[in-house]
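Pasting as-is:
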Amino acid sequence: MTSYELAQVNIARLRHPLDSPELKDFVDALDPVNAVADAADGFVWRLRTEGGDATDLRVLDDEWMMINMSVWRDTDALTAFMYQGRHRELLGRRYEFFERLHEPMTALWWVEPGRRPTVADAEERILHLRKHGPTPYAFTFRTGFPPGPASAAS
């Protein structure tokens, strides 16, 4: 039997340039929050460039749209990380840093172990979720699907 890992992407549209005073708290927290994620139980991988994070990557042809993508053992591991410590604090302040948008900005899907999703994969999953709602191909925390080949990117 093949096991699967959980891929997640979240995108966010910046309110201000990354080097602005308004985003200082967010930028200063990136390295510490990423270090906690990297050490978290169930963490597998995260998208990063040579700079150590993904802040210089943009998605959906929008120069203000940032991406965060990672792979976890399962939804429990991801949820445990999201709602603790500094990440939880920043999550509570997200609308200080990012615009409030009314379309899905987060998508989850299952991947085979060792598979590392690309930015193109992430865009595809977000757009699929926006068009079709939660399906095994791209789903949300509220409407999840069990791991399996119907939802896994090969």
